[in-house]
Amino acid sequence: MESKGKNLEAVQVMNRKLLLKLLQQNIMCSRANLSEQSGLKQATITNIINDFISWGLVEETGIIEGNKGRRAIGIRLKEDSFYVIGIRLSRKYFEIGIFSLTGKLIGEKCKRNVIDTSPNVVMDTMQAIIEKLAADHSDKIIVAIGVAVPGPYYFHEGVMETVTNFRGWKKVSIKSELQKRFQLPVMIDHDANAGVLAECSFKVNPEKYRTVVYVALGQGIGAGIFHNGEVFRGATGIAGEIGHASVNVNGPQCECGNRGCLTLYVSTITFTENVNEALKKSGRATVDSFDDLIERIQKKDADVYPEFRSMMRYLSAGIMNLVYSYNPSMIIIGDEMSRVGVQIIEEIKDNLAQIVERKVVDQAELCLTSFQMDPAFIGAAELAIDYVFGHTELLRE
Known about the structure:
Helix 2 packs across helix 3, helix 6 packs across helix 12 (375-389) and helix 9 (305-326) packs across helix 10 (342-355). The chain folds into 3 domains: 8-77, Winged helix-like DNA-binding domain superfamily/Winged helix DNA-binding domain (Arc Repressor Mutant, subunit A); 82-196 and 375-395, Nucleotidyltransferase, domain 5, CATH 3.30.420; 205-368, 2-Layer Sandwich (Nucleotidyltransferase, domain 5), CATH 3.30.420.40. It contains 12 helices and 15 strands. By secondary structure, it is α/β, with parallel strands linked by helices. The model has no long low-confidence stretch (mean pLDDT 88). It has a 5-stranded mixed beta sheet with strand order 6-5-4-7-10, sandwiched between helices. Helices cover 39% and strands 20% of the residues.
């Protein structure tokens, strides 16, 4: 329970952000639709929408079918009004693009390898690419930057802690570097938090699923939790950091100092290393990356699938901890590993059925992400969009 009330200005900011989120989700709707969905009076809706139109943020689209078959004037966010930069930084690469406020990628997406590259070099390269993208799209008004990074990320401090398999990035403050260079608001969060924000902004009905968990299963593992309309980050911003929850107290020591961390057993990096060991023992050629193994998993290759099933058992233990800790109504699997497909869901369900009671298994819908692009990349842009929706002074021409 909040200990302080809200003054009129704070309520106005909250109402504006609510309507902008609804416009983003609906793509096109009427003022009556917004009133029904938001619970705000039509007079309040009219005043706010008129402001948005005068700022060049919202446009009317002509007559559409409204509530109960009545004709109404359609409204939507303008695609060509304001833009944000979205950056996805992973252990192996980063990608950058320009997005509209509807979450649509409209600028060139640029991807670069960062393996064995120092943070200073990566930051300089990222900044140079942002400058080039902005120059190539000089007609577009860019209002903020969003960045999704590997965890643990201490959201309130704005720094990355030790990241497994990502040497040299401890205590790096990407936020201050970018803000200093571009003089724009910069929002940064854990890639799993960015992923769940994207899922719940564009794919999942928040009224149907009160608590949603997005599991980023790629070069590491983390979970983003979306509860009651917002990302749940915890006291310091590391809620959902299941990659450093121990699943084997006698296991190998992790770079974080703990033993038997889930990320040591569940990641595309670890999986590829384990498969290569199995391939060497059987006298078969090793592979260069996880991409080379996706089809072999799907075909249940004799050397590959046992390692996959072993990894899924550890993942299932992590999923079970999420179910008991957060009691989600939906769990979404995303990132690199999700490209394997339905085998992931089948293995997790089979494992959970063996270790927990049926009621617990059935309480959460388990599925793969439906995004074609990486949700964390889209979510990076949404971090920036979500920020400017709450700071509409940035959206006034």
